[in-house]
Structure formats: structure tokens, C-alpha cells
Amino acid sequence: MKDLSLHILDIMQNSIEAEASLIKLVIEENISDNYLIIKIDDNGQGINKEDLQKVVDPFVTSRKTREVGLGLALLKRTASLCDGTLKLDSKKGKGTELKAEFKYDHIDRPPLGKIPETLTTIISTNPELDIIYRHIFEEQEFIFDTKEVRKELEAVKINHPQVLEWIERYLKENLENLAGGEINK
Amino acid sequence: MKSLADLRKLRDELQKDINMRGEKDQPKIIVGMGTCGIAAGARKILKTVMEEINKRDLEVTVTQTGCIGMCEKEPLLDVKLPGKDRITYGNLTPENVKKIIVEHVINGNIVEDFVIARLDE
To answer: Which of B1, B5, B63 sits opposite A174 (nearest CB)?
Structure first.
């Protein structure tokens, strides 16, 4: 994966596969304390205890088309390459929580990439899914909630191409504002 | 800077447009969104699809699928016109996608150069 936004897209696809109706994404950039945290929590079907130990193993997957699952293994490798960690917690029937931590200024840390594009990609084919996205940059915070967007839209669909274009620009502007132009530099 | 309230203006415009259109059997585009697809550029492919639909004002249903076992041919995209076979295209670039939308989705001609599989209706 070229950047972290693609990892995020990939992990959120796991949540969708697990039939989640809500995904919470938190990105925290703390430059003063030198860390970057990505949290992805969902209310999908969850993973049982035995499997939880195994899912980061590339040769374990719930998929049936072939017997390897690379997504989590790739993210774990990226995290450990930059002195970080990947933690997974899950309860069968309740959902899954993922937390990836990276050393912010590590030379091997991939850039964050295009988070707005990752989110509009998910929304375009999953219009019913609730996404709550919180981005923290130092002391500042931005929150995006698809429920609120849908409320404004009334009968218009959230995955209408023009609405998606609007959302992408809205997210871009707000993220740029949040970090004073630091994000996506 | 944009605020959510600005969205209402766009909503009102789109509302009129939607009222004029009825739900009918639409062409379908399906994009592969497994790990393999994403690593190979599926996000850009889906974005290009949405941009073309927007630009050409098309009525198309866009959905996603996971890994279908042809990882080496990702990014993949399927086109299914009403009553026709489902065609799978592979090794795509945004330029290929634009061509497929014009020639296949709009004009109904399969772009043989990029076809990697077909499923009977």
C-alpha cells in the first residue's frame, strides 16, 4: 500500500465484509509527542478469541476464494517498520476495534494520503453505512458524520456523484484548515 | 470554507433532477475492492467511474465486490448492461475506464482489448 489512506480503505472493507452498519474512524496526529494513531472501530459480526490471534497471519482469512488474507498483515508490517504497533480487539457479535500506532517522524512512515478520497470511495458503494470520522491534529479537531450529511440531503442520495464531489471538497478544505496546510503536504 | 448547510443548495438542485427520473433497469458497474484491488489502484478506478458518470450525466448503479481470485489482473471492473452478459475488464488504468464507459456503458459495444472474462446472463 502506497500510503496510510489506502490501508484505511482496506481495513474499512473488512468492516463492511463483516456487515457493520457503523464504522468509527479516528486519526490522531500528535507532532509534539511524535505519534500518529489510526483507530477503526465497527459494529460488525466480530472475530472470536481463537481467530483474533490468527488474523494478522497472512495465511488466515475468512474469505473463500483463496486462502490468504493480506490486509491486516500488511498494516502490521507497516506499523512495526516505523516503531509502531497494531492492536486488535473484538467480541463476537459486537464488533471489532483496531488501533495502529506509528512514530510520527519515522523515515519509513508512509504519508497519510488522501483520506477524503478513501471516505468518498466507501460512501459511493455503501450509501447506507454510517461513518463517523474524527481527525485530531495537535489540539484541534474535525468531525464528519455521514448521518448529519444524510439529514441535510433528505431524499437525495449520499452517493449521488455530485454529492460525493461535494463531500470530497468539504473534507479536503476542513482537513487543510485543521492542520494549517500541514496535512497532505 | 464549506459548511454542511451549503449542502442544502446542492440538495435542492438535485431534488428537481431526481423527480424527473424514474427508477428503471440501469447498467451496473462493479469495482473490485479487495486488498489486491486497492493495492493495485482500485480507488482511482472507482473515482474515475464516478467522475465520468457525473460528467456525462449517466444513470448507472455502481457497486463493489471483494477479491475474486484474479489478483494479478487487478484493478478489475465489471460492466453488466440490462439483459446482456456480465463482462470483466482487467489491468485497468483511468484512461481505459473512460473508454469502457463511452464505448460499452453508453454505446453498448464491448471493449475487447481489456476483457479478461465474461459471465453468461
So the answer is: B1
